């Protein structure tokens, strides 16, 4: 048995770990993940911070995470915070229950309403529109003719437009809408959110806007989610909660994946060359591998509804369990050579989208966005190379990239 | 090989359509998954196992 590592040494819930992540290991503490999986597959962590939950059990093996995520009767979503923060912009406590904070029939009802805007068929119909957006964000960046920050100039704009369409946010409102999302999505990074008050302010703004948007879509319905929500007549609280959930789920995570993905492609000329060869129709495996190594959200939490035992650890009813997706995504029991970035990986049972009833609604949209953006980008460039080091967001939940300076040579 | 698709559980996530496109589709209103072949042959086993595994709500079962 390896020497016992303390919570401080592991650092998997320390924002500094990710802010100072090693770009050679996807910015992730892979050694800590390995230790957790092999030595303490159910590892108690305690926090002495009013902004965080008092304690949680970290589950890090691929098969355990999958089991917890699928067994929503034992590991419920609606009883506590959705992650290791003690506060959340969604949930009953803030008058904004959302799918991610609901269980059972209530969850199923809402999911059925909104899932129809996310099916593979609906998503396929978005392809032409997404391609237009991709071109519209890539061309101005290329036209600069000098190094730029891929995150701000491309990765941020693509999901904003795509999600705007899926959600039904009018184009002119998209910048402010996504500004609010950014503020509460990275509450511990003062470069993005100057103070904690700003987090609360941004959430309130978004709550208010959600109801305005619902009214608008009731009057002018479309194919988007907001129209489906308006048509179904969800209670006000749920409208607020689900708008926040969908916005933060889609905006941040896709941008994060694009950032980590491009960074890794620049580190791996063989993978970049393979992708260029397939730039006219990038296989689905590529986006999935990018989402795996990105692990855009390190974890989500559930709460036990009864006493359970897991790997010899007693979890009393009401215990918080953190599914450390990022650790499961590098589990050698589930992946061959998990530390290798392989765009042809198949099967790729990564956990970044979750695995159970709460699995990511936008998984097909995200995969399409990544595919199309990379296709358009590679077709328009001869060469893409770093113009400076990558830097990460200071956060242990959301794995955002802060800067990815690049130089692109137009084709 | 017999496939049991529980349409009461199905929430139209669409993962089965990606895993086994020859077997599953979503109905016209995108409400539930449907099966294109009632009793698929052995050649589809790998796809079907993947579909059953990927289904977020465990609505697909394979009975030999």
From TrEMBL, chain A:
<dbReference type="InterPro" id="IPR001128">
    <property type="entry name" value="Cyt_P450"/>
</dbReference>
<dbReference type="InterPro" id="IPR036396">
    <property type="entry name" value="Cyt_P450_sf"/>
</dbReference>
<keyword id="KW-0349">Heme</keyword>
<keyword id="KW-0503">Monooxygenase</keyword>
<dbReference type="GO" id="GO:0006707">
    <property type="term" value="P:cholesterol catabolic process"/>
</dbReference>
<keyword id="KW-0560">Oxidoreductase</keyword>
<comment type="similarity">
    <text>Belongs to the cytochrome P450 family.</text>
</comment>
<dbReference type="GO" id="GO:0020037">
    <property type="term" value="F:heme binding"/>
</dbReference>
<dbReference type="GO" id="GO:0036199">
    <property type="term" value="F:cholest-4-en-3-one 26-monooxygenase activity"/>
</dbReference>
<dbReference type="GO" id="GO:0005506">
    <property type="term" value="F:iron ion binding"/>
</dbReference>
<dbReference type="InterPro" id="IPR002397">
    <property type="entry name" value="Cyt_P450_B"/>
</dbReference>
<dbReference type="InterPro" id="IPR017972">
    <property type="entry name" value="Cyt_P450_CS"/>
</dbReference>
<dbReference type="GO" id="GO:0008395">
    <property type="term" value="F:steroid hydroxylase activity"/>
</dbReference>
<keyword id="KW-0479">Metal-binding</keyword>
<protein>
    <submittedName>
        <fullName>Steroid C26-monooxygenase</fullName>
        <ecNumber>1.14.15.29</ecNumber>
    </submittedName>
</protein>
<keyword id="KW-0408">Iron</keyword>
<dbReference type="Pfam" id="PF00067">
    <property type="entry name" value="p450"/>
</dbReference>
From TrEMBL, chain B:
<keyword id="KW-0813">Transport</keyword>
<dbReference type="GO" id="GO:0005506">
    <property type="term" value="F:iron ion binding"/>
</dbReference>
<dbReference type="GO" id="GO:0051538">
    <property type="term" value="F:3 iron, 4 sulfur cluster binding"/>
</dbReference>
<keyword id="KW-0003">3Fe-4S</keyword>
<keyword id="KW-0411">Iron-sulfur</keyword>
<keyword id="KW-0408">Iron</keyword>
<protein>
    <recommendedName>
        <fullName>Ferredoxin</fullName>
    </recommendedName>
</protein>
<dbReference type="GO" id="GO:0009055">
    <property type="term" value="F:electron transfer activity"/>
</dbReference>
<dbReference type="InterPro" id="IPR001080">
    <property type="entry name" value="3Fe4S_ferredoxin"/>
</dbReference>
<dbReference type="InterPro" id="IPR051269">
    <property type="entry name" value="Fe-S_cluster_ET"/>
</dbReference>
<keyword id="KW-0249">Electron transport</keyword>
<keyword id="KW-0479">Metal-binding</keyword>
<comment type="function">
    <text>Ferredoxins are iron-sulfur proteins that transfer electrons in a wide variety of metabolic reactions.</text>
</comment>
<dbReference type="Pfam" id="PF13370">
    <property type="entry name" value="Fer4_13"/>
</dbReference>
